[in-house]
Amino acid sequence: MKILHIITGLGVGGAEQQLRLLLRHLPVECDVATLTDAGAVAHGIVADGTRVTDLGMAGNQDVTVLPRLARLIRSGRYDAVHTHLYRACLYGRVAARLAGVRAVVATEHSLGDSQMEGRALTTGVRALYLAGERLGRMTVAVSPAVGRRLHRWGVPRKRIRVVPNGIDVDRFRFDPAARVRTRRRLGLPDTAYVVGGVGRLTGGKRFDVLLHAAAQLPEDVAVLLVGAGPQEDELRRLAHRLGLAGRVRFAGEAAHEESEEEGGAPALPSLLSAMDTLASPSPEEAFGLALVEGLATGLPVLYTSCPALDDLPADARTNASYRPSDPDSFAQALYGLRDARPPNRSAPASVGHYSITRSADQLMRVYASVVPGQNLEVNPR
């Protein structure tokens, strides 16, 4: 079986990194086409041995990409096309039809109740999405919550499959040496209680809640924000106004694992090892991958929205606590965690539910269901 993955862009982002990780574990031949922005993740995918084609799309309405994409699909003789993110799902489904490929799978990575990939869910956005969805065979939701949202939109249940995001569990094991090294690199004292936040620095992530919460806590509490985005300057100004300038670190985008040894920015597992708690005050998430990665590093996590955790049985949510997205609630929880630091950093067994190998096996079943004549053997997990 030969699959072409089409994605809107390959700069640093959760969906982009998830695609790269999946490509490492899918036991079929894959190529990747990006509509635009063949950035850092594209370079990593190529380094892993997968071909990436940058179609150089000029903007959302650059329809000239359609014939080029259709030619790419036709010439590659692909058995199936798998699209990722809103723009790629729309253009990719149309191009696949033009190329005569009807086995089209789309993954919905970032559908919330009020927004999708940062865009408001207007009537027009939803209508355009549904028009494109009908051109495919199957839509993959990264969580049951996303699946329910798709069905409420009008996508038939028989066309929805849930395949959760996955992580490389071993890569995120707590590393005490990385903890010391990363704290020294960031200027964080060994004795500091470090509260982490991971994600794009946008208003929707509500990292301002963490800063307001930290302002209520003792001076040994520091905040480490991992990510970049349009709200960074505003968050820096807020930290200064709250008297936290010396207690907040902006780490920027986490490096790929290959670059950390070259003296660049720390990779995400090292940054998580440097933390004592991971907190997410975001009120709307499609999955909550960073929190699963935090759990795999043995961190206690506080969250306002995390379908990945909500979908686990209550007794499997070890080390995870819900909090409403307000500073007082997070401050109270963090104060209690600060006084009860765990003696070890072992991951709960529940993180195995989100192993990337398990996700890859589930996705292979989806491929087998849409490509005629395929009976793929996959390992039950």
Keywords, please?
14 helices; 37% helix; six-stranded parallel β-sheet; alpha/beta
Structural summary, described in words:
The strands form three sheets. Strands 3-2-1-4-5-8-9 form a seven-stranded parallel beta sheet, sandwiched between helices. It is elongated, with a radius of gyration of 21 Å. It has helices at 14-25, 40-48, 65-76, 86-98, 123-133, 144-153, 176-186, 207-214, 232-241, 268-274, 289-296, 307-310, 327-338, 356-370, and strands at residues 2-9, 29-36, 52-54, 80-84, 104-108, 115-116, 119-120, 138-141, 160-162, 193-198, 221-226, 248-252, 277-280, 301-303, 320-322. The mean pLDDT is 90. The chain is α/β, with parallel strands linked by helices and 381 residues long. α9 links the parallel β11 and β12. It is built from 14 helices and 15 strands.
Mean of pLDDT: 90
β-strand amount: 15-25%
Strands, count: 15
The N- and C-terminal alpha carbons lie at a distance of 22 Å
Q: Can you tell me the residue ranges where pLDDT is under 50 for at least 5 consecutive residues?
A: none
Overall helicity: 25-40%
Structural class: alpha/beta
| Widest sheet, order of strands | 3-2-1-4-5-8-9
What is the chain-wise order of helices and strands?
EHEHEHEHEEEHEHEHEHEHEHEHEHEHH
What radius of gyration results from the CA coordinates? 21 Å
**Any idea what the shape is?**
elongated
Instruction: Give a quick account of the main beta sheet: strands, pairing sense, barrel closure.
Output: 7 strands, parallel
Number of helices: 14
